[in-house]
Structure formats: structure tokens, C-alpha cells
Amino acid sequence: MRVLEEVKRLALELLGGLPATLYPDIEEALKTAVHDDDGRDAPQLLYQNQAALWVLRQHQSAHVMRYRQNVGQGFDEFRALRIRNRGELPLGLIDESQIDFHLAGQNLAESLGHRFKAMLEQLRGRLQVVTTVLGLPPIPNPVGPTRLADAFVETFTDEQIPAALRALLFGHYERELGKVLGEFYAQVNELLARSGFGGSVEQPPAAPAMRRPIPSPAPAGPTDSPYADTYGHGGGPVPGQAGVAGGQSAGWNPDAAGATGYGMGGQGGAAGTGAGTGTGGGYGAEMGHGTAGSAPGQPRQPGHPGTGDRAAPTSAELGELRQMLHAWRDGRMAPTTPATGAPVQQPGSRRELRVDEVVSVASLLQGEPSDVFARALAGSGRLATAIRDQLNDGSRRLGLDPEHIRFSGDEEDAIDLVALLFDSLFQSHHLQDRARRLYARLVLPFVKVALTDQSLFVQPAHPARRLLDAITEACAGNKGETPQERELLDRAAAASQRVVAEYNEDLAIFETAHAELDALLQQQRRRIELQAERAAKATFGRERLSNAREQADSVLARRLAAPPLSRGVAEFLTGSWRHHLVQVLLREGGESERYREAIALGDALVDADRIASEGRGRDLATRLLALQPAIIACLGSSGLDHSAAEHGLAVLVKGLIYPHAPRDLHDAPPATPDDDDAERGLWVAGGTDTLRFDPAMAERMRALEPGEWLQMTDIHGESVDAKVAWVSPLTARRLLVNRRGLRVLVASAEELASLHAAGRLQLGCEPTAFEQAMRQVRQQLDRAVGQH
């Protein structure tokens, strides 16, 4: 019921932050009290109380959230959502300090009750009318002094608070409440009066329970429903009710001229004894979809809940999406009821459920196990069908026969959009089984959000979609293999459980859950950035190594081509000398003095082998003695110590002392396989020699900058979002990483262009999971509509 939600919003807005405002004044009061106390224990008492106050301040955020939850729980109990009988309450012993705490709470409630007695009497009468209208037994005032005192006591149940600090805590709480309760109770009374709940306690209007059909004096026609008179879609007027000519939802309003009773009006009701002038009045307009009429002396309040003035998003994109959704649904929906499979009745014979009724049913089911949604997300059934079946089952439990009710068009849209959204999210991201159960818990809360706030689908900063984005970020690709990943999964699960436990049409819980999860995600994002940086450094290192090897192999090939060389010299050049060239290129570059010295060593050994072949022993000995330091250094760069390097030199000299040893031309060693070949083969089928691409697209790929996102599909059909993390200064290839910072592919512009030509790469990617899922929903609807 929206009027209760508005009262709840006011309560949380004006009272929700009170616990956080008490501590500064209490600290000053403690100092003053101890300063005035001349006893010897005063310093110790001050220390004890200040220590306890410090602990309370550390738990301040938790106290505020617990207090808000306790205040909100009073409204849930008022609406008969979570009422526990005395026999269901846990029994146990409590210590003396807790007894004192409860006594202090009772004293506080009595003091506030006496202070605001007149306002509370008026409020009690109006709330009694509300309970009578809803067919509920008398329930305590959800914002009365007793409830506010209990909420405060329950907030500090787990804290150890000294007596002096406890007295200050309650004293300052009473003082702060006294500042705002007068204004708050006045606003609540005014709100209830505007909504038509202004009757006296002594003569409440006749109000049948909503689940009981009101007998009609006329027999039901072929299009009548047993629930028609109760819910406002039936035939003529009911005795004791005011009819409204042509009205849609005439409600009980004692302030309206001529109103004689409570009713929810028939669509074709004849004019009765009332004199209502609008299309609906009081509670009927609050609960229905019509616009509340204006009673004499009570002008309609624009924008007030239930008046029909709530602004809806006017996004052309959302309108187009709805049209596609309607066409898709018309082509897929069979003319049977989701729950029973029986042929449906004509729409005129079935009453449309009101939004608040569907929200109430969803709230009833919200805390129940979500296995049916988890199975639907796993592919065992359509999620939209599962949602409708669950809502129909919940309606039946509330006394509504699914064969006599139906969802409105807007409600059908909300159910289908949420189902398509969750299906797309789960299918397009690498989510594990644990994430499936987590998402299943959120289905009904998001159905409620979609029913009451269409901006969910058009407002990027909407709290609910920000939380869903954060949960997807935490779960996508997360296998729980590290402590950090497991902590992230646990925090995401806690956020979803908190929404399930606490969401009751107040979006603040989504903001709170998102803030708690986002604090941990900030650390995760930093780890992802570091992971991408490490991947870039590793890739650059491999490219430099590959480039150095190619350059060294080119130099070596020229030395082996001519003249013919002895086996010993050829093996030395192919092994130790080539490795030495690679090391020098990596450490000092091709323009360094050491690199020129290394090249000179190779040329000198080739010349020494020529001298040996000519039998010029003295010249050979002179040349080798001159080369000895350079040869030792070359062998040392391969990791040999001094003695091993001298042994290697002896082997080389031994191969040169025989002038008639065979000398041949030698082939260059095979090129070292590129470390990226196996990775590239996963994406570029057929290798890089058969690339087919548009040169213009290759130029577009060369313009890609770090930070740009792509959508890619490998040769096995696996889709992944990839970000350009780094551009190689050596090869101009792009390093692509996934959303967790892990390397996906290193590819040239031509290779990326060939992927685009094959339809396996798309430029651009929505920045958030929600937007990406909505794009896929649009594509799915567009394809489905095109087929029909």
C-alpha cells in the first residue's frame, strides 16, 4: 500500500540517522559530568565511558543500518508481512544490563507518549481505519513511541554500555526525537487525511476484508467475477457503498460530500448517494490505477502517491523496446494460463491485478527459496514462465484465483524485461554455479523494482542496476581459486542476501549494498590493473626477446653462409656466440659498443678458421691469444664460470689445430617458435598466411588506443569482452585482456581486421554489464520480431 510506503519513507528520512547524531554531544556531556565530580573514581569512570563510546562510534554505520531496519520492520508487521506470535519468539535469559536497557526504553516511550498524546490519538484513529480497510487485526503504531523506543533498544542489544553512558544515550535520543516527532506526526496525519483515512475511531466505516467477496444484489453476468465487487471491476453498486457515475475506483473518504461507505467501485457503477466528482476517491484511487478525485475542501495533491501523477520515464528508446516486446510476446505466448495450461478466458472477464497487489505477492515470495529461478537460469525452463508461475502461486495463497485475474500490460512488460535481462546477463558472462543461485535470489526484488520504477531501464545511475553491475563484476569469470576471489564471491552473496532480506520498495538498500560491495571491488579493480600491467610487461619482454633472436639469427646466417667452416667453430658460433649476441641486444641494444665487439668476435673466429685451414700455426696462435678474453667473456654470458669457460676455449682451440680438418657450409638453426603462435591459433583459424580483411578496417584497427573495448568470439564460439591494454612499440601489435586483466590475445591490426571480416569481432562494448545485457535483449527481440 503506497500510503504506508510514503509514511515509511518519511520515517526513515527524518528519523533514520538519529543514532549517528548523538555521539558528539554525549562525549561533551561525559566530560562535563566528570569535571563536576570530585570523587577519586571520576577519571576511571571517564575512561570507561569514553572507551565504551569509542566502541559505539566504531560501530556507528552498523547501528544506523540496524536502527533503520528496526524502524522499517514496524511497517512490515503493520502490513502483516512478518508478524510473529508470542509463542514463536525465542525465550532466554538476559543479563541485568539488558533489563536496565529495556526499562529505560519503557520510560522513554511513556515520556514521549505523554508529550505527544494528542497527535498520537489522532494518528491511532487514522491507522485503525487503515487496518480496518486492509482487513487486518489491530496492530501497534509502527511509528509510535513504543516502537521507536524498541527500535533504539534493539539497535544496541549486542553492546556493553555502562550505566552513565546508557543514561546519556537515552537522554539525548529523547531530546533529538522531541525535536522532530512533532513535525513528523503532523506530516503523517496530514498524509493519511489526504489519502482518505480521516474517520473517527468510534465510528469506523464498514470495511469488508479484501479477500472476502462482497455479495452483489444482482446475479452475476457472463463477464462477472466472484472478485469483481471486492476489487473494483465488477458490475453495479453494492448496498452501503457510494456509486460513482462512470468512475473506476471510488473509495471510502469520510471527508467527501455524501460519502456513505467504503468500496472499490465498479467500472460501470451507477450514481449512488455520494457526490464524488473525480474518477476515483480516497483509498480506491490509492490502490488502483485511476486518478484520485477531489473532495470538497480537500484539493488533490499533485505527485502524491496514489494520485496517479507519478512521473514515468518518457524515453523513446524504452517505448520502442516495449513495442518490440509486445510483438515478441504476441508471437510466443500461447493462449493458456501459465500455471494450469487451461484455456484462458476473454480479457474482459478477468480482472487485471494492480501493481501494488503484484508487489505484495512478490514481497511475500521474496524471502523464500529461489531454486525454481536457479533452474530456469540453468536452461531447464524459461525464466519469465517461472516468474509468472511463482506470482500466480503466491496470488493463490493470498486468496486470489489465477483463473479470475491477469497481469496488466505494464506488469507483463516488467516480468519479461527482467527475465530477458537476467537470462542475458547469465549467458553472456562466465558465471559459475554459485553465481546462478545468487542471481536467482535477486529475480523477485528486481521484478518489484521494474514494476514500481521504470527508470531502472533508462537511468544509468539507478541504484538497482549499479548493484547488479557490481555483482556481475564480482562474479564474472570468478572461480574462487584465490582468497581474494572467494572473499569477493562471499561479499557479492552477502549483498544479494541483504537486498532479499531488507528490500521493501526503498531503493536505499540497493545503494547501501552497492557501497559495501564496491569498497572491495576497488581493490579488485586495482589488482586487475596490475594484472594487465604485468601482462603488458611480459608481452613486451617476449617481443624484445623474439626481436633479439631474429636479429642474432640474421647475423649468424651470414657468417655460416661463407666461407666453409670447421665443425668446432660452427658449433661455437651457433651456440655460445648466438646466445651472447641475444644477451647483449637485450641488455644494451644494437647500437652499443659491446654489440659491435660481439660482432667483431664472430668475424675474428671466422678469420682464425681460415688461417688454420692455411696451416699458419704461428699466426693462429697469435690470433687466439688476442681473442682469449673476448671468448672467455662470451662463454661467461651463457652462465659458465671461469674454469668452465677455459675448458670451452680449449675445445675450440683443439678444433682449430688440424689444418686438414673438413670444412663445410652450415645451415642456420631453425627459428625459435613464437610463444604467441598457439594463442593466435585459437582466434585466427588457418594461420596468418591466409588472412582476408578490408584494408580500411585494418587502418581502423591501427587506430585503436589502450582502454578501448572489443567483443570477440574464438573459433569454438566462446564470446569474451576484450580491452586494448597496450600497444607494442616494436611490432604495433595490440595486447587484449579480459575484464579480469588476464591476457586474451596479442594480434596485429591485420589479424584483428580478419576477425572482423569473419564476424567474430565487434568494435565497442557497453561499459557496464547491465547496458551490455540490454543491448543483447534488444537484439534478441529484434530477431524474434523479424521472424514473425
UniProtKB/TrEMBL annotation:
Biased composition, class Gly residues, residue ranges? 232-249, 281-291
| Chain spans, region Disordered | 201-251, 281-313
Instruction: Report what the protein is called.
Output: DUF1631 family protein
Question: From what organism does this protein derive?
Answer: Lysobacter zhanggongensis
Upper taxonomic lineage: Bacteria, Pseudomonadati, Pseudomonadota, Gammaproteobacteria, Lysobacterales
